[in-house]
């Protein structure tokens, strides 16, 4: 069973089934259970190349977080979406290991029962390690930023109230150097 709790707020739990990539909001005390509708966020089915084109091979959802927007009184789910493309060239299809995956961020509102895309910041992390930390309207993920010549760990955050991402450097302390 691939079901995990990916966040809690005011007695509600957000569940995620990794085998189906479905999320649900559950109130254990009332037994109410809400499965958000499929996302209506547009995904490119192909991307042009100089020779041939890239076709969408896989859509996967990662690092789901759940929280409450105190300004609007609405429960929110945020998830990172990875789009993986293959190359189609002269009738052949093969994996493109040099082309980076396309990342999207989706935001679900329980009140409107709909998904919306949030622009992914240009200064984004390279890899998310840990997530599902939600405190006072802000979701936090431990991430890695950088390329082969130097990685550093950072905290990537998302404010549910103003729908803004932020990056925090991890401070130096005894036994740790970023």
Topology:
Elements: E1 3-9, E2 12-17, E3 22-27, E4 32-34, E5 46-48, E6 53-69, E7 74-89, E8 92-95, E9 102-109, E10 114-118, E11 127-135, E12 138-147, E13 150-159, E14 164-169
Antiparallel strand pairs: 1-2, 2-3, 3-4, 5-6, 6-7, 7-8, 7-9, 9-10, 11-12, 12-13, 13-14
Q: Which labels suit this protein?
A:
F-box-assoc_dom_typ1, F-box-assoc_interact_dom, 178 residues, F-box associated beta-propeller type 1 domain-containing protein, six-stranded antiparallel sheet, four-stranded antiparallel sheet, mainly beta, SCF_F-box_component
- Which value, in Å, is the CA radius of gyration? 18 Å
Class by alpha and beta content: mainly beta
| Mean pLDDT over the residues | 78
How many distinct folded domains?
Answer: 1
Structural shape: globular
Number of helices: 0
Strand count, sense and barrel status of the largest sheet are:
6 strands, antiparallel
What does this structure look like?
- InterPro entries: F-box-assoc_dom_typ1, F-box-assoc_interact_dom, SCF_F-box_component.
- It is a single chain.
- With 178 residues, the protein is mainly β.
- It contains no helices and 14 strands.
Q: Quick summary of this structure?
A:
The strands form 3 sheets. Strands 5, 6, 7, 8, 9 and 10 form a 6-stranded antiparallel beta sheet that branches. Strands 1-2-3-4 form a 4-stranded antiparallel beta sheet, with no helix packed on it. Strands 11-12-13-14 form a 4-stranded antiparallel beta sheet, with no helix packed on it. With 178 residues, the protein is mainly β.
């Amino acid at each position: 069973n691939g079901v995990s709790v990916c966040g809690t707020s005011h007695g509600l739990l957000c569940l995620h089934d990794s085998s189906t990539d479905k999320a649900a909001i559950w109130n254990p005390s009332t037994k109410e259970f809400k499965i958000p509708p499929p996302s209506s966020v547009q995904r490119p089915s192909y991307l042009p190349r100089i020779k041939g084109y890239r076709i969408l091979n896989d859509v996967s959802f990662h690092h789901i977080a759940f929280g409450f927007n105190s300004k609007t009184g609405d429960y929110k789910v945020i998830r990172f979406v990875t789009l993986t493309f293959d190359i189609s060239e002269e009738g052949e299809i093969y994996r493109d290991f040099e082309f980076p995956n396309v990342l999207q961020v989706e935001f679900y509102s329980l009140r409107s029962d709909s998904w919306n895309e949030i622009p992914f910041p240009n200064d984004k992390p390279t890899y998310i390690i840990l997530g599902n930390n939600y405190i006072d309207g802000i979701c936090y993920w431990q991430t890695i930023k950088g390329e082969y010549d130097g990685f550093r760990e950072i905290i990537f955050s998302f404010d549910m109230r103003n729908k803004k991402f932020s990056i925090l450097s991890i401070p130096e302390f005894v036994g740790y150097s970023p």
